[in-house]
Design brief:
The protein is an alpha+beta fold. The protein has one domain. 38% of the residues lie in helices and 22% in strands. The protein is built from three helices and five strands, in the order βββββααα. Strands 1, 2, 3, 4 and 5 form a five-stranded mixed β-sheet that branches. The longest helix is centred in the last third of the chain and has 27 residues. The radius of gyration is 17 Å and the shape is globular. The two termini are 34 Å apart. Keywords: Signal. InterPro entries: DUF922. This is DUF922 domain-containing protein. Pfam families: DUF922. It comes from Nibribacter koreensis.
Length: 182
């Protein structure tokens, strides 16, 4: 039975007028940024399964955020990335499992777009400081993590075909609604 688990990270860096900084986790050279035209394939899953892990696949994604103020204007980059070296599968034949794993990556992009929208709408963001901006990153991370858990629970890790399809439709619709924040 295909089962997946998702590892989540959020990194952020604030470079602004204050000395406050948020530690940054640098994107690995092998990370794959989310893109409409790039769908995951089993060849992207380069990690080795942990011997004591009974799951059929693990998708490691990361939502990275970098923000800085230039001329009192907030400049930011929020990126959803897939980490091949930490992602693995025991079942390279299942298209259904791959679709389930792809949707984990799509959900990461969905939450990256939501964070981009939020950051773009902040009034006077450069007067807020790192702690205030980090609050938005933490809220985004919590919502993302909660939705990932809900997705696995409701779809039974992709085993419930009707729920899996409902999630695919919902995520596609929400990504389209946030197309301006791609």
């Amino acid at each position: 039975m295909p089962i997946s688990i998702l590892s989540l990270w959020l990194s952020a860096l604030f470079l602004g007028p204050s000395a406050d900084t948020i530690p940054n986790v640098t994107k690995a050279a092998s990370d794959i940024p989310w893109a409409t035209q790039k769908r995951l394939s089993w060849d992207d899953f380069a990690g080795e399964p942990a011997p004591n892990n009974s799951h059929h696949a693990l998708t490691s994604t990361n939502m990275e955020m970098k923000v800085k103020c230039e001329n009192n204007q907030l400049k930011f980059k929020v990126e959803a990335v897939f980490n091949p070296k930490e992602s693995w599968t025991r079942n390279r034949e299942s298209h259904a499992l791959l679709a389930h794993e792809q949707l984990h990556f799509d959900i990461t992009e969905l939450h990256a777009r939501q964070l981009r929208k939020r950051l773009a709408s902040l009034p006077n963001p450069c007067t807020r400081g790192a702690a205030d901006l980090n609050k938005y990153a933490n809220l985004a991370f919590e919502a993302w993590h909660k939705e990932e858990d809900q997705y696995d629970k409701e779809s039974r890790h992709g085993l419930d075909k009707a729920q899996q399809q409902a999630w695919q439709d919902s995520v596609a619709e929400r990504l389209k609604a946030l197309e301006a924040y791609k």
